[in-house]
Amino acid sequence: MAHECEECGSEFSTLSRLRLHDCSDTSSRRGHGSDLSSDDFSDGLSEAMAERREERAAERDRRGRRAASDDFESALEAARAAEPGETEPAFTALAAYEQDLRRGYDRSSETFRALLWTFYEPVAEILDETARREGWSFLAEIVATYPRETEPHCSVAIENAVSRHVVRTRLRDGVASIPTDALDYLGSFWQSMGNLGGEESAPYGWGIGHPEHAVASHLREVVTEEPFWVRGCLHHAFYADQDAAADLFETLVAVEDVDYEDRYFVASVLSALDRSSDPTVPRYWSRRQEISDEFEFTASVRDRLRTAVEDNGFDRRLPSDWTFHDMEV
Asked: How far apart are CA 253 and CA 217, in angstroms?
């Protein structure tokens, strides 16, 4: 399935290529005799692009709502009205979402994307709210019903709710309290990188240091095949435990089976961390809405990471007075 840039409309075969492309929406409008200053031009362009994104999102939402079945709409309303102890309405809503997505997929890619994005957030919210009332057992049953191997279209909403549970559990009760099957589930989506499911599973990194599930070992094993997924997980791992994440970082950027460019890409996560740029998943939820804290490297970890950057030759493409900010890709 193609992935579309919301700014320029270009389509890419994988999310990785989408994230790394140079958006042509800006360059295509330059050099056409405008008498505006560069700042005015940039401001106007930003406004135009924002308006275009809003228009495209609104049209996608209209398409999604037109394509949604009456059964799905009714199931959503019933799930929103569910009382404590009631889990069946959430199961029914998820099943109806999956059925609509399958029908949309068969109809056209535009219909499928419209259904997926229009109802992604409300379905994820329903699953999350039910899980907060009923506990992990509810999500465990969902995961067992829709395993990654069967490639359900609704898995992104499930991953979203599982990821929220993993983060909350670690922050509230410690890493050992995270259910191992939650980590097994998220950790399996590295094979789905290039699709939305691979991206949404990055909070797997919050399981680093778990006594019964070796997150660091798993990331080391798959970095040769999916450095993009590993980088996303590493971003989350630093928020969970920066000392353990620094250990993992030192290992990952020195893996000989991974070429220089991919290792540099993994290492470039330091730029986002140094800018306190929060991970973008789980979508529609921010841990800061519930738990207020800021990320900052400790002095010892910062020194270790700088040494790892230099030991692996990444500094040769950076200015002499480089900082982690300069590692952005």
From this structure: 14
